[in-house]
TrEMBL record:
Pfam families: DNA_pol3_delta2, DNA_pol3_gamma3, DNAX_ATPase_lid, DUF3646
Signal peptide: none
Oligomeric and partner information: DNA polymerase III contains a core (composed of alpha, epsilon and theta chains) that associates with a tau subunit. This core dimerizes to form the POLIII' complex. PolIII' associates with the gamma complex (composed of gamma, delta, delta', psi and chi chains) and with the beta chain to form the complete DNA polymerase III complex.
SUPFAM superfamilies: P-loop containing nucleoside triphosphate hydrolases, post-AAA+ oligomerization domain-like
Biased composition (Low complexity): 23-32
Gene: dnaX
Domain AAA+ ATPase per the UniProt entry, residue ranges: 126-273
Catalytic activity: DNA(n) + a 2'-deoxyribonucleoside 5'-triphosphate = DNA(n+1) + diphosphate
GO molecular function, one term: DNA-directed DNA polymerase activity
Organism: Novosphingobium mangrovi
Biased composition annotated in UniProt, kind: Pro residues: 75-86
Region called Disordered, residue ranges: 1-91
Name of this chain's protein: DNA polymerase III subunit gamma/tau
Function: DNA polymerase III is a complex, multichain enzyme responsible for most of the replicative synthesis in bacteria. This DNA polymerase also exhibits 3' to 5' exonuclease activity.
UniProt record similarity statement: Belongs to the DnaX/STICHEL family.
Amino acid sequence: MDDSRDIFGDSPPWDNKDEEDAAPSAAELEAAGQSSMFGEPEPAPPEPEPTAAELEAAGQSAMFGEAPAAAPQPAVAPAPASPPAGTPSQPYRVLARKYRPQTFGELIGQEAMVQTLANAIKRDRLAHAFLMTGVRGVGKTSTARLIAKALNCIGPDGQGGPTIDPCGQCEPCLAIAEGRHIDVIEMDAASHTGVDDVREIIEAVRYAAVSARYKIYIIDEVHMLSRNAFNALLKTLEEPPAHVKFLFATTEVDKLPVTVLSRCQRFDLRRIPTPMLAEHFARVCGKEGVEAEEEALAMVAAAAEGSVRDGLSILDQAIAHADLDGEGKVRADKVRDMLGLSDKSVQRKLLAAILDGKGAELLDLVAHQFALGVEPIAMLRGLMELTHRVAVAQVSGSAADAPSSEEREALEGWAKALRAGQLHRLWQLLLKGHDEVKSAPDPLVAAQMALLRIMHAADMPDPGSLVKKLEELASRAPAAAPAGEGGAAAPGAPSAAAPTAIAPRWEALVDDVEHLGQPVAANVMRMQVRVVELAPGVLRYTQPPGFNEDISGQLRSALGEATGDRWQVERVNAEGAPTLVEQAEAKKAADTQAVRGAPLVEATLAAFPGAELIEDDRPAAIGGGSRNWRR
């Protein structure tokens, strides 16, 4: 027991029974133990004034419930306590997290879904699985947490039931808001994609909720689950225990199996309209004590593209950007510079330069905007937006949504001055230019060329106006004289005295000869035979100028083989009917003359001097039609 002497002093109390009256007090023993543990070889000698050891002993006795023998006031001030939560030393929370909706009343733009849930809760017709889908930042996960609150809220008095207006004061509401409720399990499907993760859920749903009314599983980005994981979840999702609710959130609902969709009550969360977003951001700025221009908030709302989270992130950045100049006000020009947007007034100047045909001014404006950091693609996008607003003002009759009177006057002026066809053509040209700039190696050059092309095409008439003009010219053109009236016949046309009744019979004989496998003889008959007389077994013919060879024997042989009769073929010096080739050329010339004599064609040729009428000799398409569209 000698080792105990180093711990408790000179000798342990039980070894010296005679000195019980002089034994040290509990405070002194504790002080001696503390001193020995911290390396001091001996306890401090007693003094009239309280020593540090006695003060330490008094503190230890107080901690363990023993009243100290003497409790003098300490001479040294106690150490300062840690700063309470909520002080400026706490890390900054971004606006997207700070202003996350905590009640359904704070959830903007989803009135239809809130009304459906409210009616379901009132009528006790709650589904066992809910699916929230929509673009990013519209409140899918927040809605799932709100539903968890609504189902598990017990009210401030602890006697409440499911409600669409959770109190936010009871323990379930507070725990769910802080993400620490044991019966509300959130799982990120993007990082838990396998069947093993789903198997854990399947095993856990068999047990009742620990402290809440319902055990709720919130699975975010549920479309990331694997096919096997979905299949493993199907049976539990279809027939879960009465105390379990599933809440799914996804941005790509088309990737979910139909078997999962059919087992859920689906809510499609809408994009938040730009005016509603601007109003929401104005309220946030008011709570934050930040001044913001209306136009600046409109820019932030437009850049958010219907997403509250994206808009709050941009607004957070805009507030930080505004603080740099010392004013602390979110101004439109600062937001425009931060987002790289084109100035509205410069957009109007660009459109005016395009419509007025001022190329030099147009290039100067583009160069100035590019020097300020505005991307060429943003210039084209701004012009497209402006053109769309002009078209809408033209249809509605006014531009009431314009933020300023100057912009309203400009939009309404263009809406009255421009035709609908011009606006639509301008939109198509801007859209084509946007695609070119997007894929060009030098976006600035591509934007300049696209805008110059649009400027040169701005004053061209649209197709509807062109057709109307041609119809007016056609109505004023003199009527074409009938073919053959008061003029010579077309070259190569058959004379009036020609026996036209012979042509069908002769053409049929030529076809018979060709079908019997004598294409050479058939071509000779088409090109060199002007029929003078054609009777059964008799053919008298003459030849066109330039053909002098005797073809009687060839014709006799071919006709005899085709008909099986003996033919008398004789070449005579007389006027005969045109050859089949001459007849086809005459018909073609007559058709061309008829087309040129049409009033609409004459008007077109008059409107476009030097234009030529091009004949399409390509073969017809397979299966019918007048054009071979496969070429």
